[in-house]
Write a structure and sequence with these properties.
- It contains seven helices and five strands; from the N terminus they run αβαβαβααβαβα.
- With 222 residues, the protein is α/β, with parallel strands linked by helices.
- Helix 2 crosses helix 7, helix 3 packs parallel to helix 5 and helix 5 runs parallel beside helix 6.
C-alpha cells in the first residue's frame, strides 16, 4: 500500500504525463491543415440590354433567374452580371480585362454583338472583336461561351446571313459552346415584348432562361 508521500509523487507524475500528452496532441491537431472550403465557380455574364434586364426589375431578368435555378438544382455557381445596356463587342473588350482581374471567373458568357449589327458594323470587325473576347477569357483561365445573335431581315439578306454565321464560325473554330438565339422562343409573340418590340417583358424572361439552360447546364455539371 502506497504511503501518502508515494501516492502524491505518483499522482504528480501521472499529471505531468497527461499534460505532456495533451500538449503534444494539441500541437499535432494545430499542425494539420484546415479543411479547404471549395470556392463556388464564378460565372461572368458579359452582355447588353438583353442580359441587363432593360426596362424590368433586375430580379426578373434571365440572369437573376439563372442564379436561382442553379441554386435550386444544387449547383454552387455564383453568377455575376456585368451586362450594360447598349454594350457592343468593342465596349466589352474595353471592360473585360478589369472584370477578369477582379472576379477571376471560371466561365464567361459572351452575349454581345446585337448592337454591333444594329449599327451595321463590318462583319470582319465583329468577328475580330468576338475572337478577342474569347481569347482574353481563355488566357484568364475561364471557359468562354458564345451567344448566337440575330438581326431583323430589313438589314439585308447578305448582311444578316453573314452576321449570324459569324457566331457559328467562331464557335466552331474555337470549339465553344454556342447558346442559340435567346429570344427565339418568344420572337413571334408581340405581346412577349415591351413597347419597343426588342426587350422582353418580365413574364417572358423565364422562357428566355429555358432557351439558354440546355447549353449552360452541362457547364454547371462540371
Amino acid at each position: 500500500m502506497l504511503t501518502p508521500l508515494a501516492r502524491t509523487a505518483l499522482l504528480d507524475a501521472m499529471f505531468k504525463r497527461f499534460l505532456i500528452c495533451g500538449l503534444l496532441l494539441g500541437f499535432a491537431a494545430s499542425a494539420q491543415p484546415a479543411p479547404a472550403t471549395a470556392k463556388a465557380p464564378v460565372w461572368l455574364v458579359l452582355g447588353d440590354s438583353l442580359s441587363a434586364a432593360y426596362g424590368i426589375p433586375q430580379s426578373a431578368g434571365w440572369v437573376s433567374l439563372l442564379q436561382q435555378r442553379l441554386a435550386e438544382r444544387g449547383y454552387r455557381a455564383q453568377v455575376i452580371n456585368a451586362s450594360v445596356s447598349g454594350e457592343t463587342t468593342a465596349g466589352g473588350l474595353t471592360r473585360l480585362p478589369a472584370l477578369l482581374e477582379h472576379h477571376h471567373p471560371d466561365v464567361v458568357l459572351i452575349e454581345l454583338g446585337g448592337n454591333d449589327g444594329l449599327r451595321a458594323l463590318p462583319i470582319a470587325r465583329l468577328r475580330d472583336n468576338l475572337q478577342q473576347l474569347v481569347s482574353l477569357s481563355r488566357k484568364a483561365g475561364a471557359t468562354p461561351v458564345l451567344f448566337e445573335m440575330m438581326l431583323p431581315p430589313n438589314y439585308g439578306e447578305e448582311y444578316v446571313s453573314a452576321f449570324t454565321a459569324s457566331f457559328h464560325q467562331i464557335a466552331k473554330l474555337d470549339r465553344l459552346a454556342l447558346v442559340p438565339f435567346l429570344l427565339a422562343p418568344i420572337a413571334a409573340d408581340r405581346d412577349a415584348f415591351q413597347a419597343d418590340g426588342i426587350h422582353p417583358i418580365a413574364a417572358s424572361e423565364p422562357k428566355v432562361l429555358d432557351a439558354v439552360w440546355p447549353t449552360l447546364e452541362p457547364l454547371a455539371r462540371r
